[in-house]
Write a structure and sequence with these properties.
This protein has helices at 2-13, 29-44, 59-67, 83-89, 133-144, 152-161, 169-180, 200-205, 219-228, 247-260, 290-302, 306-314, 320-344, 368-377, 410-417, 440-458; strands at 21-26, 49-54, 72-76, 94-98, 115-118, 184-190, 272-278, 354-358, 384-392, 395-403, 425-426, 430-436. It is α/β, with parallel strands linked by helices and 459 residues long. It is globular. The structure holds manganese (II) ion.
Amino acid sequence: MDNLIKNGSDKFLVLNKNKPLRIITHNDADGLTSGSILIIALSRDEYKFVASNVKQLDDKTIEDLAKEDYETFIFTDLGSGYLGKIKKHFKDKNIFILDHHEIDKNDFALDSQNIVHINPKLINENDYNYVSGAGVVYLFIKFLNKRNVDLSYLALIGAIGDLQCLNKGLNSIILQDAINSGKIEIKKGLKLFGYQSRAIHKVLQYSSDPFIPGVSGQEDGAVNFLNELGIDINNGKHYRKLTDLDKEEMQRLIAGIIMKRMGIEKDPDDVIGDLYLLKDEEDDSIIKDAREFSTVLNCCGRMDAFSIGVGLCFGNKNIRSKAEELLKSYRIEIINALNYYYDNINDFPKSDCYIIINAKDNIRDTIIGTLMTILSKNNNLGNMVLIGMAYREDSIKISARISGKVDIDLREVLMQIAPDYGTLGGHKQACGGLIKRDEEKLFIDRATKVLNSMEMAQR
Ligand SMILES: [Mn+2]
C-alpha cells in the first residue's frame, strides 16, 4: 500500500497547481467524507479544484464527465469497478482513482500510463480490506502532507458509513491517528442513534438497529417501556436525553433493552459498544457522535445536498441548522414513503410470500431502499420477499429485501428475474441495482413468475 501511495504521490506532485483538478466522489457518507478530506487537504496546499458527487459511474455519467475540459480527474470512493470504461473515455487525461471497492476482474491487471490506481484490493492481504474510500484518500493526503493527520477523524466517519470495523487493518491506524490528534475519544455506551441530541423515547422509537421489539417504530411502545423501567421521560422542563440519565437509570435501561431483545435470534446483548465522540463538538451537537455524523452525511447524499455535507466536514457552524432541516425533511420523506406504501398496498402485485412495490416517481430512488429496510424489519409482514422499484432519470432503481426467516440468496433471485442490473450490489438479504426504464412491465411480469414459482418451492 505504501508503494502504491508513494508512486501515486510522485505523479500527483508534478501536476500544475494553476490548472483546476476535477474531483468526482460517491454520494454516500463515505463518498462525502472522501471528497471533503481531499478538498480540505488540497485547499491547504493552494490547489484549485471543482468537485461534485454522483450516484454511480454509469455509461452516461462517464461520457458526460469525459467531455469536460479538465486535464486531471480524481475519482474517490468509486472508479475501481469501472477501470475499463475510464481507460476508454479518458485517454488523454491524468486520472487518479482512490477507492476501496471491488475491482472488475477483467481490468485487474489494467496498466495505463495515465491512470494512478490506489486501492487496497490490489494488494493480496486481508488486513488491507478494513479501510473505506475516505480512509484511502486520507492515507494519500497524509503522505502528501503530515499536517493533514488532523483529518483522520473524517476518514473514520466514512468507514462507519460503510459499516466497517474500526479496530482492524488500516482503519486501526487511522483510528490511532484520530485519537492522537485529539479529535476523537472513545466511550462505552448504548449503540443508539440520537444519543446526544434527541429525547430518549424518540431515540428508542427510531432505533431500527438494534431493533427493540415492541418499542422500535412505536412511540407509545417507547413511552410505556420507559414507564415500566421507572425512567422519567421529562424533568418537568423538557424531554430528557440519554446523556441526562444517571448511572443507575442507564443500567436499568440497558438491562430492559437486552430483556426485550431476548427473542432475537442472535446477540440480544449486542446493544452496547464503543461510541466515537468528536472532542471539538458540544454535547448537544448533531455531529458529536461519529455515527450520527455519518447518518447526517448519508442523508445529505440521498437528499442531493452535497454542499451541506461538505460544509459539515469543513466544520462550518452556520450550515448545522441547514443540516438539521435537511434531516427533518429526510424523515418526512421516509414517513411519506411509508404512507404511500400503506395507501397503495392493495394495488401492488403480491401474495403471502412476496410484494412488489412499484413506486414509480412517488418515492425518491435514494429513499426506496430505506423504505424497504424499514418494511423488512417490521415484524408483522412475516416471511416474505420484498421488492421495491423507483424511477431514476432514465432507469429504475430496484431494491430487494427479505423479511422474517426466508433462507434464499436474493441476488440469485434478482438474477433470475432480469439478467442485467448494471452493478448488482448488496448481499443475500438485501441488494439492489438498476434496470432500464422501458423494462418496467417486463420486470414485474418476470418477478411475479419467478416469485410465484418460489412460493411453490417453499411450501
Ligand atoms: Mn465506500
